[in-house]
Amino acid sequence: MKTSKKLLLACFITSLCFTSSYAQKFIAIKKGVKSIKMNLNDEKFTIMRNQKAGNKISHLYETTNRGMPQPMILANGVETLGELEFIEYMKKAQKDESIVIVDSRTPGWYERLRIPGAINIPFKNFESKDTAIEAMEDDLGVVEKNGKLDFSNAKTIVAYCNGYWCGQTPGMVTRSKYALLNMGYPASKIKYYRGGMQAWTSMGFTVVGSEQ
Fold it and tell me: Is 14 within the bounds of a domain?
């Protein structure tokens, strides 16, 4: 009986040591990956999770009294992404100009805290026809010809906003008369990172801005 207890104690201690050693190694993005260096939209940065023990989420996202949850699927054909899929699109966008990482929030939010490498196309641009067309022509590869919009070279949009409860990306994609889908933008070229800044900061991922 004593031998059995000693063996159990030894196994328990070994397990604790192994767990502690592994945890101290690094906080991973995925198995074996601590960081990813990127150069996107003339911005060089490293995506990683905060390695500091006890690091806490930004005060911008620490409260829970937010709006109602957004649907998991915004519309048929619009793909919803998690963090790993979002990062894969970031990696692809470094060399593929047909992919654009979009922060759909208002400029104030964008300046305070954002995901590096993203460009700001505020959802409010899609509240009127003229500003919607201007945004699509300037940043999204859409061309207006003879009063009609040509989406043949439309870029793949990978968009996020403040989080599960935030209506800014949904507003850009579906909810106004001049939202992307209502203007004819292909649903297959719209990707929605639903977790947005709420999820990104909760995982301790790299951010930039005045309140980082």
Answer: no
What is the domain range of residue 178? 35-202
Residue 137, in any domain of the structure: yes
pLDDT tens, the chain, 212 aa long:
455 555 444 444 444 444 444 445 899 999 999 999 999 999 999 999 999 999 999 999 999 999 999 999 999 999 999 999 999 999 999 999 999 999 999 999 999 999 999 999 999 999 999 999 999 999 999 999 888 999 999 999 999 999 999 999 999 999 999 999 999 999 999 999 999 999 999 999 999 999 98
Other beta carbons within 10 Å of 23 = 10
The token pair that represents 136 in the structure block: 């699509």
In angstroms, the CA 10 to CA 212 distance is 44
Token representation of residue 110: 């964008």
- As given in the structure block, the two tokens for residue 57 are 């989420």
Residue type, 95: K
Residue 93 Rama label (left phi>0; alpha psi -120 to 50; beta): alpha
